[in-house]
Amino acid sequence: MDYLSEVSSERLRRDLFRLCRDPFSFRTVMYTIPWHDRNSLDEFDDFLVEELKQYAGDVVKYPYKVRPFRCDSSKPLHHWYSSPREDDPWYDANSILVTLPGSGSQSDEIIQLVSHKDSMSWINSPGAHDNAVGTVANMELVRILSKIKLNRTVRVLFCNEEHSPWHSLDMAKLAKSKDDKIIAVLNQDSLCGKSDEDAATGKKTFACVYSTPEGKQLAMAIAALAKELALPLDIIVADKVKVNDDDGSFIKAGYLTTVMNLGSFPYKDSQYHLPGDIPERVDIENLKLSTQLILAMILKIDKEGFQLVKD
Question: What are the pLDDT digits (tens) for 199-217?
């Protein structure tokens, strides 16, 4: 079966507008929909759990406390976030972990997917590219992978990154403490986010970035697979150098075969961290192609494993 053809533009678009327009608008502890009594991030978590339970039997909430970032307009435009003060209130939040168990001889090996599901906590932004697109891509991957008899286990973490503190590091440390055999980590964050020029010309972009030699090999394998499949994506492979973002959380916990998948690098979306990061700007075809490439890599690793090449 051609599973790549199962990736649905219609579902990606539907989910994107659910997250960014109706009913949620924003996914933050600082916003409550009029006439509701719970914040939009909390409500979205419930929606996400119920949606994913249709496809996976193992969907678990991991509760923790967060504080929203403060807004500091004296900083550069795209970086107005500022650390909370010590007396700022704490809010309940959740990471959500979905497990699709493998049934083969390598079921103890885990392919870990990650995406942060929240939008900016210091301004009202729908956060379409950052990071509704990564969230809906991973939702779509859960749907499709749930139909496949997997050899290895696929695990998907939906976490929060636009609030403080990040919980992806705690989840990565928890995996390490259990000696989880994570063989590859793919973080979907800001897929198809690109420059206005690339958007205007219709260029379909995919950037795979790494911060370790092991991550470089995974990134190169993804680029080679895109070429093999003749996917019409303009592929960038780059050294991120700085160990940060949710992929960095897993690297810091000792999982070095880790990459971040996004739309451009250095990141070129003119509406990054701004109210103009709206779903209407998202190139759905680009998002579909990116999701197909990630799915193809997951299936390849599931079938063959991922062996690092010795230099």
Answer: 999 999 999 999 999 999 9
